[in-house]
Amino acid sequence: MSPARALPDAHLPGRAAGLRAGAEDLGARASALLLSADHLAGLVQMGAHGRRRAGAGEAFWQYRPAQAGDTARMIDWRRSARADTPFVREREAEVAQSLLLWVDGSASMALHGKAARARLLALALALLALRAGEAAGIAGAPLRRGHAAGGDLALHLEAAAGEGAADDPPEFGAPAGFDLPANGRALAVSDFLGDPAPVDAFLARAAASGVRGVLLQVLDPAEEAFPFTGRMIFESPAATRRRETQEAAELAVAYRARLAERRAQLDRAARGAGWVFGTHHLGQPPAAALLWAQMALSAPRPEGRG
């Protein structure tokens, strides 16, 4: 007897209804995410990316002396008038790049809506890349091109979020276990409050692949300011650790120092790999974080420092 026939027939309608309801819920969440990300992406424009060589493009690159085979239409007569040699105005070639996005789906990101903000920023950045003719993808899924790809990316993000909630996700997350687009770009969004060693290993792998990118830390305002006072009980995201204090305010200075130390460590690791590190908290407008990430990814590669 086949596995499908092993279930009593009476169970099949209920199971099919459950699957349909789940699919409809996923579709609704993905549509809402796509609508919000599309609105957010509309506030930012992504520029073209040059490859610093002559070719078909809009941006001026350099003048060069005219050569055999150049037509009269190619001569820049204004520039040539200042010299004895005719000059040709060359434009910089534009090339479509690949953008990979990783969004932390750990239990820590589920607190206070950090995961939802991370998905919104990641998808909005992907939409900007797709509109610029680039390929974009979520870690663990194929790169996609074209305006229609945004819906697929939204479905993937929401499906991954639903699976993480159902499968008891890890307490903290780190980018690992997926391929990086050689010489492409990447965005990793997390609170980065877990073990920094996997992040360091990811950055080393990215640098070896010629991938430059951005680490974007998303935090709740309370995780920034630590406004707690009086008797408090603190638990880790998965309740594996617990600490009770009679006066939480006494922990504030040490907490903020640890947070600043973690940020400095992430910034050093990012710069060493040619990446950029930044922080965004939920009390700030998402458009500001999106614009910052877009500019950081478009800027010339910074000099790496260990």
From TrEMBL:
Entry-linked Pfam families: DUF58
Entries under InterPro entries matching the protein: DUF58
Superkingdom of origin: Bacteria
Domain DUF58: 62-264
Protein name: DUF58 domain-containing protein
PANTHER family (UniProt xref): BLL2464 PROTEIN
